[in-house]
Amino acid sequence: MELEIYKYLHDQSDFFDVAEKMSKASSLMPYELLKESMQCKNESDIEKRKGLIEELYTKIKDEILRLKRNQYDSITSKSSDGVTSIENFMKSKLAPFVYPLMPTFCNLVLLLLTIYFIFLMSESTITQQILYISVVMAVVIYGTLMISMVSLVIIKKRFNNSWLNWMLFFLFVLSPLSLFEGPWYRGIIAIVLIIAYGFYAAKKSIKKSIP
Question: Could you list the residue ranges that cross the membrane (predicted)?
Fold first, then answer.
C-alpha cells in the first residue's frame, strides 16, 4: 500500500488502485490509519483527497519505522534496545534445532543404555543388578521430564521466574552426575528425587495454561 500511494503522489498510479490497496490492507492497519484511509476514500474533492493521502502516507512511513524499530531481530538475536537476550537467543537459535532432536537423542541414549545394561546384568550380583535397573529407570524418567521442562521453560515460557525455582531446575539438570558415584542404591535415590522434583515443578514452577 505504501508503494502504491507513493506512485499515486508522483502521478504514476490512479486513486482507484490506491483505494484497492487500502481495502486489502485494512485488516492489518491500526485503527487510526484505517480511519484516515476511509476518510481518503470518502473524500470527493480531488485536491482535498490528495492532501489527506499525503498525510496518510507520512503516517504510514512513521508506522513502518516504528514497527521496524520494535521488531525482534531474528538474525542477531537482539531486541529493540540492541541488547542480546539469552532467552531470545535460546528461542530463536537453539530451540528450533535442539528441541526436535531431543526425543531422538534420548531414544539413542536409552538404546545404548539398554545394550550396556543387558551386558552388565549377565555378570553381576543382586545389588549390582538393582543398581543397574534403578539407574536405567532414573535416566528414562529424567529424560522424559527434561523434554517436558525444556518445552515448558523455553518454548512455551510457562516457567515461574524465582530464585528457588531456577536453583532447583539447575540442580535437576545436574542430577545425573549423582549416578556415577555413591552407594548401590543411588539409582533409587535419584528416582525418588527426580519424581519429587517433577511434582514440585508441576505445582510451583510451571504456570497454569490459559484456556
Answer: 97-119, 131-155, 162-178, 184-202
